[in-house]
């Protein structure tokens, strides 16, 4: 491929653009298109170049970007330009996120707009509102089975409500994050319906087969996502008399990205939501975007090319909008969703740090940081201008997807250790205070994941039930400890709705036939705002937790060493209960914060002599940013109480 080819094609395309597009003043668009066109063309050609309709599809792609640009408001374009100038804006330590379901936090979108005060009170300035689009009742997968990508679920509100919310957020400098469910549609989506009615064009949007031959071939290498409730990756459609690929639930039809029409249609949807004032798009289940016989159908190279193409196209139309990759995969695969080359292969600016999440839970179960240390040490380096989304809980289950080599290096057997973790968090392990549930036990592989709210997993529920104050206190300390790490690790911390208030498991899903076979609903709570008032009443658990969270967030925002510029150094120490790392200001490296976290219930000490190699004098005096106090220090040792953490600076 030569650039001349792409340029002459670009000229042809510009000549062929619809007159209503050509008439517009879209200079910025042309500049960006020119700058990105070679990349866009090359990617589109690699994916679809063999097709007869390649040029027509390419024209449609450019038209889609142009129409998206024309529809973009002047205000959003201003913000695009500002963000282009300050292109590392999202690496700053000032961002702190929260994820929530609209109806788990408020009555609906309008009511959510009334509750923004809560975000400000806590210090949240990035809100991920979980899927709000139309889904069939009872077959919604919590919003991830979309039947209309442009229509908001009318129980939650209207497009106007969302625009108003976006405006409200913008006024308060809160970023809005929304989902784009890229990998599949509901079987009630118009495209699926047309496919069911026999329209070939729409059957080509999915993976549809007349008999089991190809499906059986695929099955040989594809794992199952929901083996208990939805075994297999294909579903028989009675009306169509065909098999259709359904990796997740049987009502979620996988989109076929080897069809460029699907790509263009989904890009159009991305741009539509970008134009409603969304700052960041969470791209759901991106690991699954490309299906290839003989593979697991996850993390395929072409899935990455699809994302690169989406990024390049979105940058032409709405360059201020960022992507979050939701790829809950092994560390080496996870890192690739940032792109593997900052110049020519950008993908998503932000990615879920599922590895850190799982490692933190390992620390809770084992009361030591051995595996956590290994895992963090071996976390692959990421590109510049890329950042983690660090979280402890979210709306999904916890999978213990660490690297087997790390598990071995920490001294465990991978299979037995994962078994232990599942037993621990489901409360089956002797002495475990956790109240989680086993999610999707796979009989064949022995795999299982865990559902449960953070509070219930760390023993708060058990403590409250038995009125065991010591258990309650420890649970609170663990919640604070876990947050102290996601807030200081480097990346955007993402809190989960309810966790700052210690909300425990919600068992009501069991009475709802649409939810009862999916225990992830146990940790998708509805906030009880009367109870939440307790955050203002001294002596309550809510008060202690909420204020600890609020304080940590405020300190994070003022601590430039907590920004994410590859400015973390893990410290190797000789106490396996502690995790210890140094954060430093990337412009003023002498401004450092030493983060130490004690995963044990018992007091532990850190021998400061071990920090000598990092240029820290063992007799130096420290102050803890969080408590404002000097830590208990004896000789060269600093003492931490059970489940305590420090954010230390030298004085
Ligand atoms: C993502 C969502 C999860 C959903 C799945 C299928 O992983 O987070 O909740 O079940 O995609 O859409
Ligand atoms: C996601 C993840 C998996 C998760 C599932 C649904 O895409 O890959 O870890 O369990 O969807 O919860």
Catalogue the unreliable spans. Answer: none
Into which percentage range does the β-strand content fall? 15-25%
Distance between the termini: 59 Å
- Derived structural class: alpha/beta
Radius of gyration: 25 Å
Helix content, binned percent: 25-40%
Bound molecules: alpha-D-glucopyranose
Main beta sheet: strand number and arrangement?
8 strands, parallel, barrel
* Individual helix count: 24
Number of strands: 25
**How are the strands ordered across the major sheet?**
1-2-5-11-12-13-14-17
Shape assignment: globular
Compute the average pLDDT.
96
Summarize the structure.
With 651 residues, the protein is of the alpha/beta class. The chain is 37% helix and 15% strand. It binds alpha-D-glucopyranose (2 copies).
Could you explain how this protein is built, in words?
The chain is of the alpha/beta class and 651 residues long. 37% of the residues lie in helices and 15% in strands. The strands form seven sheets. It has an eight-stranded parallel barrel with strand order 1-2-5-11-12-13-14-17. A five-stranded antiparallel sheet has the order 18-19-20-25-22. A three-stranded antiparallel sheet has the order 7-9-8, covered by helices on one side. The radius of gyration is 25 Å and the shape is globular. One alpha-D-glucopyranose binds next to loops.
């Amino acid at each position: 491929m030569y650039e001349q080819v792409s340029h002459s094609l670009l000229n042809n395309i510009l000549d062929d653009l619809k007159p209503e597009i050509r008439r517009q003043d879209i200079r910025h668009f042309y500049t960006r298109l020119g700058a990105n066109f070679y990349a866009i063309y090359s990617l589109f050609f690699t994916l679809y170049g063999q097709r007869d309709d390649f040029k027509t599809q390419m024209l449609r792609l450019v038209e889609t970007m142009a129409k998206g640009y024309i529809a973009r408001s002047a205000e959003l374009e201003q913000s695009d330009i500002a963000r282009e100038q300050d292109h590392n804006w999202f690496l700053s330590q000032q961002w702190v996120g929260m994820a929530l379901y609209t109806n788990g936090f408020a009555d609906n979108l309008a009511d959510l707009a009334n509750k923004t005060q809560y975000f400000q009170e806590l210090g949240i300035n990035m809100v991920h509102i979980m899927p709000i689009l139309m889904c069939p009742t009872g077959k919604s997968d919590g919003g991830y089975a979309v039947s209309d990508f442009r229509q908001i679920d009318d129980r939650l509100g209207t497009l106007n409500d969302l625009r108003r919310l976006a405006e409200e957020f913008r006024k308060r400098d809160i970023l809005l994050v929304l989902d784009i469910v890229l990998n599949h549609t509901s079987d009630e989506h118009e495209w699926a319906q047309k496919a069911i009615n026999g329209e070939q064009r729409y059957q080509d949007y999915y993976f549809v087969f007349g008999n089991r031959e190809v499906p059986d071939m695929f099955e040989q290498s594809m794992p199952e996502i929901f083996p208990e409730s939805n075994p297999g990756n294909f579903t028989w459609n009675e009306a169509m008399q065909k098999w259709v690929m359904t990796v997740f639930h049987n009502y979620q039809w996988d989109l076929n990205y080897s069809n460029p029409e699907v790509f263009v249609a989904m890009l159009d949807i991305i741009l539509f939501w970008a134009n409603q004032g969304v700052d960041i798009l969470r791209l759901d289940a991106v690991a699954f975007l490309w299906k290839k016989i003989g593979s697991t159908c996850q993390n395929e190279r072409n899935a990455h090319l699809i994302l690169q193409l989406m990024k390049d196209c979105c940058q032409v139309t709405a360059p201020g909008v960022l992507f979050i990759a939701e790829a809950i995969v092994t560390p080496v695969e996870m890192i690739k969703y940032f792109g593997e080359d900052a110049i020519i292969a950008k993908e998503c600016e932000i990615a879920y740090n599922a590895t850190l999440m799982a490692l933190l839970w390992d620390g809770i179960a084992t009361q030591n940081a051995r595996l956590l240390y290994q895992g963090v040490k071996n976390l692959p380096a990421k590109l510049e201008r890329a950042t983690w989304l660090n979280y402890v809980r979210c709306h999904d289950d916890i999978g213990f997807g660490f690297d087997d080599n790390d598990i071995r290096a920490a001294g465990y057997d991978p299979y037995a250790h994962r078994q232990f973790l599942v037993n621990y968090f489901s409360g089956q392990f002797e002495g475990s205070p956790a109240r989680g549930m086993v999610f999707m036990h796979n009989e064949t592989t022995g795999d299982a994941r865990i559902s449960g709210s953070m509070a219930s997993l760390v023993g708060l529920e058990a403590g409250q039930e038995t009125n065991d104050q010591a258990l309650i206190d420890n649970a609170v300390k663990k919640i604070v400890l876990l947050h102290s790490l996601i807030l200081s690790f480097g990346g955007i911390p993402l809190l989960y709705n309810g966790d700052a208030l210690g909300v425990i498991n919600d068992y009501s899903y069991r009475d709802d036939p649409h939810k009862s076979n999916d225990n992830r609903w146990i940790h998708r709570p509805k906030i009880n705002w009367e109870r939440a008032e307790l955050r203002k009443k001294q002596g309550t658990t809510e008060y202690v937790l909420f204020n600890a969270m609020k304080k940590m967030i405020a300190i994070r925002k003022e601590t430039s060493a907590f920004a994410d510029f590859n400015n973390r150094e893990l410290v190797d120490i000789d106490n396996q209960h502690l995790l210890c790392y140094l954060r430093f200001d990337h412009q003023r490296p002498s401004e450092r914060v030493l983060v130490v976290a004690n995963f044990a219930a018992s007091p532990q000490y850190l021998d400061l002599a071990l920090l000598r190699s990092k240029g820290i004098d063992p007799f130096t005096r420290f102050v803890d940013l969080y408590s404002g106090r000097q830590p208990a220090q004896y000789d060269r040792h600093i003492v931490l109480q059970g489940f305590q953490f420090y954010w230390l600076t030298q004085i």
